[in-house]
């Protein structure tokens, strides 16, 4: 009989709830060694076997855990939309607002919603894989004008277990095991740095979800403090291949100030300097995301400025200077046609203009790709995640001062 078929003796009564999913196998073993016995496996071996079963099979009973000891945020709705590369799946999970742990307005509903999206991709191998767009917060404090999530304000950050539960539901509830994970859903990952990195530690755990680290990307609107912390993290053994994406969306400070308040604290020149100093490891690329918004950031001037920004992210020949004696591309420009949020002041760009802008980047020597629009009709595309109900209450508006990003409560 194989280990995964061995019956469990006296499943323990564990009370960690969803936070059980926020533990690496080392932490799980330290906590539960001696409390779980599966066939001949007891002690540390029994705990290890339970951990593997939990993530590999998604069956709490098979993992030696009694049903109810891991209270997963339930999936409340699943939306599906066809795309040219397969079915896009958006699923909503419900969590408690947890007023005792965080300062949350009493006017908000007791239940909050996490939105996650499974995006189909067909690569050069012609095989379909899925990318899971993961949320790290409910709402967001960054205030980007083009983003639906930003209209909610920040409600609360997710715990590591709540973040990992999105992968768990994709793999075991929806039945689609994602190849890639992108922290590009609701929230600013660097605003919830510790829980995001703990979630990544679990997601890459070889005894758990076992997602390749090179297939996990952390996106930020430009919190340099978070970028610096992540730069130190990827220098550690076992972390070199974690990917970084910058949501740039403008080629100059005037435009970026107007659509992304964070730029008033850390401007484009500071971001470029930080990215030039990003640690260099084999296969470690920098993804620059550029949402193309009609009449805002889509002119010839913007093309020229954007190409100059990208030139500074190229490697250098020995003795060369970045941007003057370029070597291989380190930066990849990901062009994203704008997906209108609710009550958006801007429309989606015309397809012909998207093609023109992309070709303009390529002609200027930029390594650029276009992200295909998927899930727009069900508000599942980039920049469209967020609760319309909470949006009407707008809990938080972001302000930026010399001391950093501050959060000011607004009337509910």
Description:
There is one protein chain. The termini are far apart. It is built from ten helices and 16 strands. The strands form four sheets. It has a ten-stranded mixed beta sheet with strand order 3-4-5-6-9-10-11-12-13-14, with helices on one face. A two-stranded antiparallel sheet has the order 1-2. The chain has a two-stranded antiparallel ribbon with strand order 7-8. The protein is globular and about 70 Å long. Helix 1 crosses helix 2 (43-57) and helix 3 (160-174) crosses helix 4 (193-203). With 412 residues, the chain is an alpha/beta fold. Helices cover 25% and strands 22% of the residues. It has two domains: 3-57, no CATH class; 75-409, TIM Barrel (Alpha-Beta Barrel).
Brief overview:
The chain has ten helices and 16 strands. With 412 residues, the protein is α/β, with parallel strands linked by helices.
The total strand number stands at 16
**Individual helix count:** 10
Q: Approximately how much beta-strand content do the residues carry?
A: 15-25%
The figure for the number of domains is: 2
What is the CATH architecture term of the largest domain? Alpha-Beta Barrel
Query: Can you tell me the CATH superfamily of the largest domain?
Result: Aldolase class I
Oligomer state equals single chain
Tell me about the largest β-sheet: 10 strands, mixed
Q: CATH topology of the largest domain, which one? A: TIM Barrel
Distance between the ends: 58 Å
The side-by-side strand order for the widest beta sheet comes to 3-4-5-6-9-10-11-12-13-14
Structural class: alpha/beta
């Amino acid at each position: 009989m194989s280990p995964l078929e061995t019956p469990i003796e006296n499943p323990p009564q564990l009370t960690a709830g969803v936070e059980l999913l926020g533990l690496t196998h080392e932490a799980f073993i330290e906590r539960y060694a001696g409390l779980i016995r599966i066939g001949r496996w007891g002690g540390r071996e029994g705990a290890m076997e339970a951990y593997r079963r939990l993530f590999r099979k998604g069956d709490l009973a098979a993992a030696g855990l009694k049903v109810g000891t891991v209270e997963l945020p339930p999936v409340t709705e699943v939306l599906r939309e066809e795309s040219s590369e397969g079915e896009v799946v958006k699923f909503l999970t419900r969590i408690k607002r947890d007023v005792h742990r965080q300062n949350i307005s009493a006017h908000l509903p007791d239940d909050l919603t996490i939105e996650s999206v499974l995006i189909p991709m067909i690569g050069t191998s012609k095989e379909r894989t899925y990318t899971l767009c993961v949320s790290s917060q409910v709402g967001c404090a960054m205030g980007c004008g083009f983003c639906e999530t930003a209209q909610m304000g920040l409600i609360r950050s997710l715990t590591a277990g709540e973040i990992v539960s999105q992968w768990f539901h994709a793999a075991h509830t929806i039945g689609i095991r994602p190849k890639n994970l992108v922290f590009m859903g609701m929230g600013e990952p660097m605003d919830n740095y510790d829980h995001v990195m703990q979630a990544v530690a679990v997601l890459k755990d070889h005894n758990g979800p076992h997602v390749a680290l090179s297939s996990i990307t952390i996106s930020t609107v430009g919190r340099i403090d978070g970028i610096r912390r992540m730069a130190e993290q990827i220098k550690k053994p076992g972390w070199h291949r974690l990917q970084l994406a910058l949501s740039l969306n403008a080629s100059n400070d005037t435009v970026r100030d107007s659509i992304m308040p964070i730029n008033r604290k850390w401007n484009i020149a500071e971001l470029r300097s930080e990215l030039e100093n990003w640690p260099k490891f084999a296969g470690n690329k920098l993804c620059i995301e550029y949402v193309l918004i009609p009449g805002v950031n889509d002119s010839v001037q913007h093309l020229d400025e954007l190409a100059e920004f990208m030139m500074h992210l190229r490697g250098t020949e020995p003795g060369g200077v970045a941007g003057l004696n370029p070597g291989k591309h380190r930066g990849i420009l990901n062009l994203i046609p704008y997906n209108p949020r609710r009550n958006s002041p801007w429309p989606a760009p015309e397809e012909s203009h998207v093609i023109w802008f992309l070709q303009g980047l390529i002609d200027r020597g930029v390594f650029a790709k276009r992200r295909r629009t998927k899930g727009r009709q069900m508000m599942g595309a980039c920049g469209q995640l967020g609760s319309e109900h909470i949006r009407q209450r707008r809990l938080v508006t972001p302000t930026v001062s010399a001391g950093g990003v501050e959060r000011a409560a607004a009337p509910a």
